[in-house]
Amino acid sequence: VQLQAFGGGLVQAGGYLRLSCTTSGRTFRDFHVGWFRQAPEKEREFVAAVARSAYGRSTQYADSVKGRFSISRDNAKNTVYLQMNSLKPEDTAVYYCAVTQIVWAYVHDTQYYTNWGQGTQVTVSS
Question: What are the per-10-residue average pLDDT scores of the chain (126 residues)?
Answer without folding.
Answer: 90 98 82 95 96 87 98 91 98 96 93 88 97
